[in-house]
């Protein structure tokens, strides 16, 4: 069965190491008949979560107006999510952490998926 694969690429360096790993993953996924979309987080406006609580204590959506609603829709619709980040000081980079924080309003809907995490390092 063909799956919808969403690749979230967090490195600020297009064509860098994380990207090379993504390229290979995407090649394999396409060869296996899956549809793939890759999002470079650096191309999107994704602001920090401000911890305002509108989403988790008031049951409202996130009040920020940036590109995150579109990215969240794609995450919810995907069958497979690939999170590709360079390792910065033993963990994910800030762009990836910011993305994860901003799923706060809808993360319970991001379920029943295959997740792959790729951390490229030195
Ligand atoms: C701020 C910063 C912190 C880093 N911290 C680590 C680290 O803790 N461990 C490691 O092995 N590499 C570390 N690196 C190296 C990167 O993880 C490595 O070069 C990575 O492959 C870069 O991925 P990219 O080409 O996709 O940007 C760091 C690089 C930067 C810029």
Explain what you see.
The protein contains 3 helices and 4 strands. The mean pLDDT is 96. The chain is globular and about 45 Å long. The protein has a 4-stranded parallel beta sheet with strand order 2-1-3-4, with helices on both faces. By secondary structure, it is an alpha/beta fold. It has a single domain (4-120), classed as Rossmann fold (3-Layer(aba) Sandwich). The protein has helices at 17-31, 68-77, 94-101, and strands at residues 4-9, 35-40, 80-86, 114-120. The termini are far apart. 27% of the residues lie in helices and 21% in strands. β1 (4-9), α1 (17-31) and β2 form a beta-alpha-beta unit. Bound molecules: flavin mononucleotide.
Q: Tell me the number of helical segments per DSSP (H or I, 4 or more residues long).
A: 3
Through-space gap between termini: 36 Å
Number of domains: 1
What is the fold-level CATH name, i.e. the topology? Answer: Rossmann fold
Helix content: 25-40%
Q: Could you state the order of secondary-structure elements as H and E? A: EHEHEHE
Radius of gyration: 15 Å
Instruction: Let me know the number of strands.
Output: 4
CATH architecture: 3-Layer(aba) Sandwich
Quick one: overall form? globular
**What is the assigned CATH homologous superfamily?**
Flavodoxin domain
Strand proportion:
15-25%
What is the SS-derived class?
alpha/beta
Strand order of the largest sheet: 2-1-3-4
Mean pLDDT: 96
| Uncertain regions spanning at least 5 consecutive residues | none
InterPro entries: Flavoprotein-like_sf, FMN_Rdtase-like_dom, ISF_SsuE-like
GO molecular function: oxidoreductase activity
Keywords: Flavoprotein, FMN
Organism: Methanosarcina horonobensis HB-1 = JCM 15518
